[in-house]
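User: Can you write out an input/output pair for a complex, sequences first and structure second?

Assistant: Here is one pair. Inputs:
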Amino acid sequence: MKEVFVRLARCVGCRQCEISCALVHSESRDIHQAVWERPLPRQRVRVTREGSEYYPLRCFHCEDAPCIGACITGAMHLDEDVGTVACDTTRCVGCWMCVMVCPYGSIRIHEGQKVALKCDRCPDEDEPACVRGCPTRALLVKERALVV
Amino acid sequence: MKHVIIGGSAAGMSCAETLRRLDPKCEITIISDEARPFYSRCLTSYYIAGKIGERDMLLRDPGFYEARRLDLVMGKKAVSVDPRKKAVVLDDGSEIPYDRLLLATGGRPKLPDIPGAGKLGVFTLRTWDDAVAISERAKAARKAVVVGGGLIGMKVAGALRDAGLEVRVVAASGRVLSQMLDDVAAAIARRLLEAHGFAVDTRCDVVEIEGDDEVRHVRLQDGRRVDADLVVIGKGVDPEVGLAKACGARVGRGIIVDEHLKTSVPDIYAAGDVAEAYDMAWGEPRVNAMWTAATSQGQVAAHNMAGIPTRYPGSVGMNSIDICGVPFISMGVVSPRRDRDGNGYVELAQRRAGNWYRKVVLKDRVICGAIFAGVVDKAGVVLALIRARARRDDAPERILADDFTYATFMDVIDEKGRYFQEGGKRNVQRIMQGGY
């Protein structure tokens, strides 16, 4: 099963992954038009600086995901085919239980729609947008079994 | 092996599903006194508000029980357990034998002794049936009084307001959400409620519910008499410990369980809102009646029932509520009682413009509780820190300044946090040190 991995030493904090992520989740998918969309397209990955290092933080798609156990509607679920933790936003009521339990802070509130906002690992793309957009190849897709 | 589970909600169902995964051959019987398949109890207020329909209440597809060979006995009440014969007796007189038994009997709304509480139009909210009855009544009602300012009370109040009623909340304590919030956060919540047209009375109680057959007015402690054609009483929930007590299990506020969620009676386990299990923030057993704890306790109980010894790491009492569009999250120890707990706790808080408020509570310099209002992003990181019981002296300052992420605390969370268990090791490896 495919997995997104991070090579921390290569991340220079350029935030290109954030832009690629927001763009792929926009209506127009065009950066010049996307900036005028309301609500603004939001990124699901966040680059944060800690000391001298940068960390692109995103959903780890945990195997034993606390957000799934906490979800009161069944919106947050395991997509067994691709091994991702997916949120069916049509079922999300905005109770924020998932926000409360995610140890990585990877689930946020979509302010415009009042639903949970998290990485969907780009189900319709060949490669996740953050990986494709990363100029230093700090983010990369690998088979899970190869690394662990 | 024959497993019997009393209670068909979060704890019971997660136990049943885990048992089936662990042992494809065992027999599993679930006894539920509600005549409904597994639904989301937490959604009842959304149902009253009209935001959730019949189908979205159900958490499993219709063929689910059959596909997993779960024998569901619906609409029947277990009236006793005979631990010597190892059998459960139902209200129709039939007996169901067990090898291992899970008590997931949940809770029952407290019913204070208010004269007139038996009148038509007076409800408590626990089950889907309760929600159906309340929303039926709400169709023709105009004015609602919610007795109790706790989580259930606030959720019902919001739902009834969404359904178009005028709503008054009457809370006995000095603030709304007194268990979940402190004075400052509760004041923010109250101001929001009042700005959105709710009437809120604190330090007040309903002393009588008046009307002929149906409720027409309620009389308040301070002598006022207010119109009401719908009353919901939300004064808390008591663990449903009757069965456990009768079969000789040790009972405190809930059923007392050990670290394997076993009761004091052989081969009987307990999980969910009825269980008094270890609380990591308080460092002592507590009843934490919440969906997430019920789910994980059900899973842990299932492992132990299936003969795979598994320790329950404990829960942290927590909750999340949206009040008039503003999120509030509270976790662990938020209002340490000085009279009982002495001065071992330190409370630090930060208030910003708007509805932004944040607080952390420390004991022995370790974070054991937090409140988030207005902005709740990353609350889960703080929860992980509480669960890890790790001391990081910069943590309070950085949390209050909103200058932190998972990366800030990843060393202590991952090293000491038993949170992640099996999947966790792998999660950590997904951030790799250096290239390869």
